[in-house]
């Protein structure tokens, strides 16, 4: 009871006025990282579509979709996504000094884990929605891939 009032006053005067701007600053790199995940998924599926349109080979298409499933674990391809979030390091350092925010690396690592999880969910959903189409007419497959991609991106 004796600590509650001074703690509330401290939060109201020294932290609450800055919360909105802090969240906006944090969301910049985080949103950028998640947009990079979306862009990478889009690019990879577009490459599958282009390859299929050139070859019209269903076996190769299956191999390409199987390879897409490994995308979340491909550190080279995911690296640009992770680098966007690394910008938090600089910003969080300022927060650490101003508000005694600790465990900056943990915040960045968790964000990168969420990005990987999002990509895992995207490729899994893509595979689940597209897999019945392997028996479809090959003339419609590229269109089906595009529709599934758009649905996943939604």
Automatic annotation (TrEMBL):
<comment type="similarity">
    <text>Belongs to the Niban family.</text>
</comment>
<dbReference type="InterPro" id="IPR026088">
    <property type="entry name" value="Niban-like"/>
</dbReference>
<dbReference type="Pfam" id="PF26086">
    <property type="entry name" value="Niban2"/>
</dbReference>
<dbReference type="InterPro" id="IPR059060">
    <property type="entry name" value="Niban_1/2/3_dom"/>
</dbReference>
<feature type="domain" description="Niban 1/2/3">
    <location>
        <begin position="9"/>
        <end position="154"/>
    </location>
</feature>
<protein>
    <submittedName>
        <fullName>NIBAN protein</fullName>
    </submittedName>
</protein>
């Amino acid at each position: 009871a004796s600590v509650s009032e001074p703690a509330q006053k401290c939060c109201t005067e020294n932290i609450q006025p800055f919360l909105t701007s802090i969240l906006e600053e944090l969301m910049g790199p985080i949103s950028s990282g998640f947009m990079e995940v979306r862009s990478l998924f889009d690019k990879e599926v577009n490459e599958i579509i282009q390859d299929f349109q050139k070859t019209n080979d269903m076996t190769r298409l299956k191999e390409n979709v199987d390879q897409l499933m490994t995308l979340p674990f491909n550190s080279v391809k995911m690296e640009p996504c992770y680098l966007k979030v690394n910008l938090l390091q600089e910003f969080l350092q300022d927060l650490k000094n101003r508000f005694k925010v600790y465990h900056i690396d943990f915040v960045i690592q968790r964000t990168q884990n969420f990005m990987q999880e999002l990509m895992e969910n995207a490729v899994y959903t893509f595979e689940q929605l597209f897999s019945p189409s392997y028996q479809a007419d090959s003339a419609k497959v590229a269109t089906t891939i595009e529709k599934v991609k758009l649905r996943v991106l939604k």
